[in-house]
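Hi, here's the filled form for the chain we discussed.

Project: internal
Contact: R.S.
Residues: 642
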Amino acid sequence: MIGDWPKSRLAHAIRSIVFFGLLYLYLWLAVEPRLIHSCGTITNFPVFYKDWPFFRDCLSYPGGLLRYVCALLPQFFYYSWAGALVITGQAWAISACTGWFLRAIGVPGRRVLPFVPALLVLVLYAQYSFHFPAITGALASLVFGCLYIAIASRLRRESVGCAVHTASFYLVLSIISYVVSAAAYLPLAGLCAIYELLFRCRYGLGLVCLLVAAILPYVVGVLLFHVSLVNAYTDMLPMSWQIRGWASRERMIAAVYALYLLPMVIALVWGLWRGVAVWRKSRRTPARTQSAEKKSRVQPAKLAKSLPGGLRRWVSGPAVWWTIESSFVLAVGGAVATVFLDSPQKALLAVHYYACHRMWPEVLQAARRYPDHYTAMNAVDRALYHTGRLNRDMFAYPQHPEALMVTGEDHSVLYWHKFDTLIDLGLMNLAEKDLTECMETFGEHPMILQRLATIDLAKGKIDAARIYLERLRKTLFFSTWAKDCLVRLDADPTLAADPQIQQLRAQLLRKDSTVSFYAREPMLAALVEQGSPNRMAFEYLMAWYMMTKQLDRFVQNLARLTEFGYTGVPPLYQEAAVIYAYGTKKPVPLQGLAEAQRRIERFSSVFNRYGRDKDAAFGELAKDYAGSYFFYFIYASSSAQK
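And the returned structure, exactly as it came back:
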């Protein structure tokens, strides 16, 4: 009995537990589903509300029940450990159904093939694409397909009444499947038709499966539920118009097609192969058949005799083959996980996630792995300001003037954390406009609703803020924040005692009508000049002057340092001041520039030693002066991509 354990269900269960356990750890620790939840690039991430009207609306169209589930479960991506559990469960279910289906039709290699769908799911999430509804649709069609085969295989094939009962059962199952999963039902029809035509040889039933699939979506979808003809035949499938035409939604769509087609292709190939084998066997003469059978018996015997007895028994043992199969599955899984993990995309999404949650040290650390991107630069500058390092370490990171403050004039609504900078600065109207455009693309994502509510609270639009807060109160993970805000509003309708709201109100730009809507410099200057000390606006304005090399305007504002609470001159400001003094031969009325003057003299001596050849001097200057304004002023290099 012990020697037969690799053939048992326990052995297969152990292999599955190890595989899916490692898959869970990989998704949790390497992929981190929380990055998908708040990534700002997935335009079809579902909205979910925990109230009856939302559930009732989902039941008003075919596939609504599956849509409801596909809206609920991805919300748990908010926590990486919970999101990884959801994805692993999805991958395990589709693999288990695939394995059961392959066993039912007798496909060889069915101990290894069921892991292929799980690897496809792994690839999809490792590439940070979101196809949860389509994957769930493929799973639903497999579940209903396995249910049909389980029932149909128990019925006698010769009975005419049995065929009628089977057809009736298929019709009822098809209606249920279509109501539950919409057009994701169609792969079920393909599975059932292949099963009846190639494995049960009930050609009439096979044709019935195809005929029902052609008519049912029109009757149930168009006539009963009044959905459009296109939606009736494509909703929940990867070729739906809700996916096609969107670059972000079509990403890795080939893997989704593979999930849908894999069981049907395997069944079709295996069924045709079996049919050809039976046909060839029927054409053989009895003598040729006996000869072939004799050769098939003799050949393994010759092979067995060529090995020593102990080795022959060991190689043919089931434990060895179980170990080989398991090692192969795990090795392929490890290779797929290593090759397909999109590390650059993960780094960029990590920057976005940490910026959204105001985790400034983590923003700076993640940006090191993806520095040359406008979005990363924007988050870095905001993190540097909030950690008190913008005027000291700004040029230790790649910089570009366009990335300092993104105004949305290019209609780029991806990575909505860029507009948090506008909120922090006090540009509420511009931030509200950009976030509203984001909501038109992404839907009522809780993070967008939270920011819009904050803007309305800062602007004193309490009734409008309550609308957003009531929506947030019905979400899963933002309801506590919304309820707390509503309680505070009931106790203090103006939020006069809320320090965060009062600070935002103090920084609010009150001169939008006199400022060009997208002009960065005038907006920052207006924030600085409007009376209340806005240190962030001042530092951003000074950073803008340094990045654009407008040192005359920069020097004019140095006298205002004490107005914004500075007790000394920040290092980068010192370097910019001495560059201005050296270039214009005009004195700068600042104290404590001696060290900066010595540094620029050493910098100039190195630069002049190479005949003022920037390319030749780059290596030596970068070694000692990278991160200084001297280096930025000479090279002003950035490989940034918007």
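Let me know if anything looks off before we file it.
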